[in-house]
Design a protein that fits this description.
alpha+beta, three-stranded antiparallel sheet
Length: about 140
């Protein structure tokens, strides 16, 4: 049980970038003996960077959209039909993962109606965020 309770303590300390002073005061408040506090801090400080590295790679955060490129194509015909005459938007979202400076592209094609629907949903999401921030 002690081992199982120390794992979250190690992880939370690494997550919040706690130093030996922070962990010592927390463990003193929990009435832990000074020699055990010292043992905990020795193990924690020697493994802190590895823990933080593992924590940064196991996040469930979504990438952030930092830029958008688009272009309008007009399809006259395709392999199956002689006449299509349909405008199509090709959209490229430039995304950035947290902790990484590399940009990744997310590409998709959509019709005018699909693009209008997406824009409407994004506007609704923005309004919801504005309302939530005012609370």
């Amino acid at each position: 049980q002690v081992f199982a309770s120390l794992i979250p303590l190690f992880l939370e300390a690494a997550k919040h970038n706690a130093d030996a002073t922070n962990t010592s005061s927390l463990l003193e408040d929990c009435k832990m003996s000074p020699d055990r506090i010292e043992a905990f801090n020795n193990v924690y400080m020697s493994n802190k960077t590895e823990l933080q590295s593992v924590l940064s790679s196991t996040g469930s955060g979504f990438p952030h959209i930092v830029d958008v490129d688009w272009r309008l194509d007009y399809y006259m015909k395709n392999n199956h039909l002689d006449k299509v005459n349909e405008p199509t938007y090709l959209v490229t979202l430039k995304t950035e993962e947290s902790g990484s400076s590399q940009l990744k592209d997310v590409q998709f094609a959509c019709t005018v109606e699909q693009l209008q629907d997406m824009v409407g949903k994004l506007k609704d999401a923005c309004k919801s965020m504005e309302k939530a921030s005012q609370m």
